[in-house]
Amino acid sequence: MTLNIVILAAGQGKRMVSDLPKVLHPLAGRPLLAHVLDAARALSPARIIVVTGHGAEQVRKAAAAPDIVFVNQQPQHGTGHAVQQAQEQLLPGGRTLVLLGDVPLIQAETLRPLAEGAADRVCMLTAMVDDADGYGRVVRDAGKQVQCVVEHKDASRAQLEIREINTGIFAYPTARLAGWLDRLDNNNAQGEYYLTDVLPMALKDHVNVEAVACADVTQVQGVNNRAQLAQLERAHQQRIAQRLLDGGVALIDPARFDVRGDLQCGTDVIIDVGCIFEGKVKLGNGVRIGAYNVLRDVDIAAGTELLPFNHITQAAIGSNCIVGPYTRIRPGTTLADEVHLGNFVEVKASQVGYGTKASHLSYIGDTTLGSRVNVGAGTITCNYDGANKHRTVIEDDVFIGSDTQFIAPVTVRRGATIAAGTTVTREVAADVLAISRVKQVVIEGWKRPVKSKKEG
Ligand code: UD1
Ligand code: CA
């Protein structure tokens, strides 16, 4: 059966108090609309139509994809008016599912009963809530048959008591929709064309109207302000945390943990509090992540431990390494197995070989470090001459004394020793000692200056 999905995303979102269109506000690092699109795509629709309005250009740019058709609603005269704008783009036959761009946690499984099944019926996703303030209420007759939805602003005292609400998510037989949308009017408290007014028309045409209940209220909650956005962010993170806990990951505190992308974990992974995982992160078996690590697009092999407070981006880390605290690893870096990087060590676009150690206060950029290299404290690769970047190559088993500078491009051959305080400007051969140091001078009987007494 042909499935159209229309996503309403024209609203302004005034209460966000923001220049960013509401559907572009991030949840778990991605726009609200992207989450709705995930659920939509999981249903394999024939067509997805996004109705834009406020910030249309920005929304289009952010969501553009070959499988999406955008239509513009200008100005915005209500949810019924919004679907009218999409009408021309609907593929004929089958069903049309309407989703809201600011209801991000909806799951495909919840939508399936609306999208599939008997074609000739209208389905409305409803929910029972404690506080129905602002929502349209589902009005049923004595036989419990749905009759209509009454908007909060149009509701009578008695109707305001109803706890069953319209989530705003509907599915219609596409062939019937045009006829109903054409008959909508705006004789209501808000002077808008209400999509909900389709229900009584369908009933009059002897089309079944079915309410499908959604028990998980977070799935149908909308984002109208930043407090609600923060609430849904937590709900989403809790969902991810639960999945990881069920899969055997030890989260020290599932409430202090954020995934903004895709986190894959092996067995017996331990994650301490305050960590943020962005993009694609893979943690091998037995990996331990200390408190407050921020990782983006990182692959970590088995048995490695991150001590607290590291910032690691686009890097591959081998097995049984120890990193941190306070290590910064920048894009294009790979660490082989059993590497140790310590506090205030920054590594960028470098390959670090097996068993190599840089324990304190170093900058390693555009460098190939061999195996078993010892990098002394304060070692700096001077990779930038003000115009271009140059590489440093340090071969296996090199010992680098503290406070050494490598003026790139430069190569140090295997087994060489660099004395502390050396500035390496030329290639160093294998197994030699390189030293560049001003000779120490001793001045006997030297007196420290004393503070002169101020006059007057
Ligand atoms: C709507 C429903 C209400 C339901 C509630 C659920 C109607 C008449 N009311 O009310 O029954 O309980 O959602 O959250 O349908 N939009 C457009 N163009 C417009 C107006 C809205 O694209 O002209 C989009 C908004 O961006 C938003 C969605 O439609 O994503 C809902 O609009 P909103 O104004 O929030 O509707 P409510 O008054 O909350
Ligand atoms: Ca709303």
Short description:
The chain is of the alpha/beta class and 456 residues long. The protein has 2 domains: 3-220, Spore Coat Polysaccharide Biosynthesis Protein SpsA, Chain A (Alpha-Beta Complex), CATH 3.90.550; 250-434, Hexapeptide repeat proteins (UDP N-Acetylglucosamine Acyltransferase, domain 1, 3 Solenoid), CATH 2.160.10. The mean pLDDT is 97.
What does the model show?
The protein contains eight helices and 35 strands. The N and C termini lie far apart (100 Å). The longest helix is centred in the middle third of the chain and has 21 residues, at 226-246. It has two domains: 3-220, Spore Coat Polysaccharide Biosynthesis Protein SpsA, Chain A; 250-434, 3 Solenoid (UDP N-Acetylglucosamine Acyltransferase, domain 1), CATH 2.160.10. It is an alpha/beta fold and 456 residues long. The chain is elongated and about 105 Å long. The mean pLDDT is 97. β2 (26-27) and β3 (30-31) form a beta hairpin. It binds uridine-diphosphate-N-acetylglucosamine (UD1) and calcium ion (CA). The site of calcium ion has 2 residues, from loops. The site of uridine-diphosphate-N-acetylglucosamine has 28 residues, from β1, α3 and β10.
